[in-house]
From TrEMBL:
GO terms for cellular component: eRF1 methyltransferase complex. Pfam families: PrmA. The lineage of its organism: Bacteria, Bacillati, Actinomycetota, Actinomycetes, Mycobacteriales. GO terms for molecular function: protein methyltransferase activity; S-adenosylmethionine-dependent methyltransferase activity. This is Methyltransferase. Keywords: Methyltransferase, S-adenosyl-L-methionine, Transferase. It comes from Gordonia iterans.
Length: 268
């Protein structure tokens, strides 16, 4: 079912198989761009209670898993911010991470991640990107943050559906800017941050902020997907604000890989 979503040529077979298994445990149709209210109700009815408030794995999830497949996770400490369903954290465990912490500001997502975890090396924490702290820093940090531009600001902490997982203020950067500012606190020297976002939320700004904070940034993946229900409902506003062109029906997703500069031996 997930051959198009997670091709073996783009990630290690072990990681792909484990990620497919995790996706199977979360939902049946990962290719619905954002989902409708009816689909959310059907999803909750056939899965765990409360999962209608959790972001289901989508194309951006797949892009991030593909990029994660190119990272040597063996023995590493990993952190998955904005974990949603928890499948990225599951992929990190499958890839050989020594330990994984999955973080989300939505308690429903934390519960979903805890239900998905496969062993004691995996913890799920209720916190925000701004507030989460760890004394050591992590070797690998992944994040699929909210990045959809939203008129009138981002959604509240617990709206009626999973809109908190994509709405990110008028420029789509309410969480991205916080992530960039905190990256050096969360990523250990020499460690890697992988994040996925839409080009509607200015990936060049992400790159500049991370480079300013001591990271070397490259693009690790890119994909184009049709507008889902949320972007279609905002097309007029997106056109008026200059974020999309008239007639545009697609958005581009990009995965950025940011490596934090190691501490020079002379100052250790």
């Amino acid at each position: 079912m997930y051959d198009d979503l997670l091709p073996a040529s783009l990630a290690g077979p072990r990681l792909v198989l484990a990620s497919r298994s995790a996706l199977d445990r979360v939902q049946h149709d990962p290719l619905v761009p954002e989902g409708t209210e009816e689909e959310a109700q059907d999803y909750e009815r056939h899965h765990r209670p409360g999962t209608r408030n959790v972001y289901r794995p989508q194309a951006d999830t797949a892009l991030l898993i593909r990029a994660l497949g190119d990272v040597d996770l063996t023995g590493r400490r990993a952190l998955d911010l904005c974990t949603g369903s928890g499948v990225i954290a599951a992929a990190a465990v499958a890839g050989g991470a020594r330990s994984v912490v999955a973080v989300d500001s939505c308690p429903h997502a934390v519960a979903a991640a805890r239900a998905l975890r496969t062993g004691p090396e995996w913890a799920a924490v209720h916190s925000t990107v701004a507030e989460f702290a760890d004394a050591e820093g992590f070797d690998v940090v992944t994040c699929n943050p909210p990045y959809v531009p939203a008129p009138g600001g981002a959604a509240g902490p617990l709206p009626g559906g999973p809109a908190h997982a994509w709405d990110a203020g008028p420029d789509g950067r309410e969480v991205l800017d916080v992530l960039c500012a905190r990256a050096a606190d969360l990523v250990a020297p020499g460690g890697i941050l992988l994040l996925v976002q839409s080009t509607l939320a200015d990936p060049d700004a992400t790159r500049r902020l991370l480079e300013h904070n001591g990271f070397r940034v490259t693009e690790a993946g890119r994909g184009r997907i049709p507008f889902g229900p949320v972007l279609r409902s905002r097309r007029d506003w997106l056109i008026r604000s200059g974020r999309v062109r008239p007639g545009q029906r697609w958005e581009t997703l990009t995965v950025l890989r940011a490596r934090r500069d190691p501490i020079p031996a002379a100052v250790r």
